[in-house]
Design goal:
It is built from no helices and eleven strands. It has strands at about 1-5, 10, 15-25, 30-40, 45-50, 55-60, 65-70, 75-80, 90-100, 115, 120-124. It is globular, with a radius of gyration of 13 Å. The chain starts with a strand and ends with a strand.
Length: about 120
């Protein structure tokens, strides 16, 4: 399975971006999906997860209310809507896939499939 993330860019603080991740090679709804992010010199951290059907989600606590994860199974695409962005949100954002759905997806080692990352830079 291949994952292709896009949608990153430069945005001013308070602005919004929507990231996308297109999945190919296997049926998209075989996979629960997540977003992670990694700032320079820091560990990769969990952002949000969504189940195969898109009706269950969970988030890193501090991002609830600003970030929204969704998916369109007909379009084989995962999304991350990011609002009220702050400089601390600057990072490379990665989409990740796994076949299991449990509320333990914060560990990046649980994901066998990754996209290449898309850079988000938030200026103050």
């Amino acid at each position: 399975v291949q994952l292709q993330a896009s949608g990153g860019g430069l945005v001013q603080a308070g602005g919004s971006l929507r990231l996308s991740c297109v999945v190919s090679g296997r049926p998209f709804d075989d996979y629960a999906m997540s977003w992670f992010r990694q700032a320079p010199g820091k560990e990769r951290k969990f952002v949000a997860a969504i189940n195969w059907y898109g009706d269950k989600t969970y988030y890193e606590d501090m991002l609830k209310g600003r970030f929204t994860i969704t998916r369109n199974n007909r379009m084989n695409t995962l999304y991350l809507q990011m609002n009220t962005l702050q400089p601390d949100d600057s990072a490379v954002y990665y989409c990740a896939a796994r076949t299991r759905w449990e509320y333990d997806g914060q560990d990046p080692r649980k994901y066998p499939y990754w996209g290449q990352g898309t850079l988000v830079t938030v200026s103050s």
